[in-house]
């Protein structure tokens, strides 16, 4: 499928989660968003509220990032604070150990955050490179049962890697259009971005948005 840079930009969460980024660097990055035409900016919750005129660009924040091994109540408080400080969307990391060993508790972890942010869109990061196909399917089903809006491949910080076409396709097939699918982690060029969309992604998380979109020309 042929897409324009404008069409792809509207599916992008323009993301800066680098731990050592300064306030000035985050502000400069965020201020690029309206001109790039992206869907949202995604930042660490400590950067909120954003002191920038973003127009119609939405604000997303991460929760339980990047390990997912925070207590569920801490994740819920973190997410609620982020929404209170202007986040329209929350990208939470599920507890991977629970997902692999105790799915009921992993589902409760997601539900705890869902209940804390009723008005916000919720994405659940599964860290798919660290999971088997069966575990990815389980994670997708748990996210759907808990009322999440999206499942997401990766934080971009796990040593196992980021998004893969196989994982995106499996997630897309599992949620069947009932949830969105966000591909994130390692999308650094125009070709890869489009391959992820062709595989079933409905949102892309990228830090190199400008260079990726430039690849359409």
What does this structure look like?
The structure is a single chain. The chain has an 8-stranded parallel β-barrel with strand order 1-2-3-4-5-6-7-8, surrounded by 6 helices. The protein is built from 10 helices and 8 strands. The protein has a single domain (5-214), classed as TIM Barrel (Alpha-Beta Barrel), CATH 3.20.20. Helices cover 42% and strands 17% of the residues. The relative contact order is 0.15. It has helices at 5-9, 23-31, 33-36, 72-84, 96-101, 103-116, 133-145, 165-175, 190-199, 209-214, and strands spanning 12-16, 40-43, 58-63, 89-93, 121-125, 150-152, 180-184, 203-206. Helix 4 (72-84) runs parallel beside helix 6 (103-116) and helix 6 runs parallel beside helix 7. The longest helix has 14 residues, at 103-116. With 217 residues, the protein is of the alpha/beta class. The model has no long low-confidence stretch (mean pLDDT 97).
Quick recap:
By secondary structure, the chain is an alpha/beta fold.
Secondary-structure map with pairings?
Layout: H1 5-9, E1 12-16, H2 23-31, H3 33-36, E2 40-43, E3 58-63, H4 72-84, E4 89-93, H5 96-101, H6 103-116, E5 121-125, H7 133-145, E6 150-152, H8 165-175, E7 180-184, H9 190-199, E8 203-206, H10 209-214
Parallel strand pairs: 1-2, 1-8, 2-3, 3-4, 4-5, 5-6, 6-7, 7-8
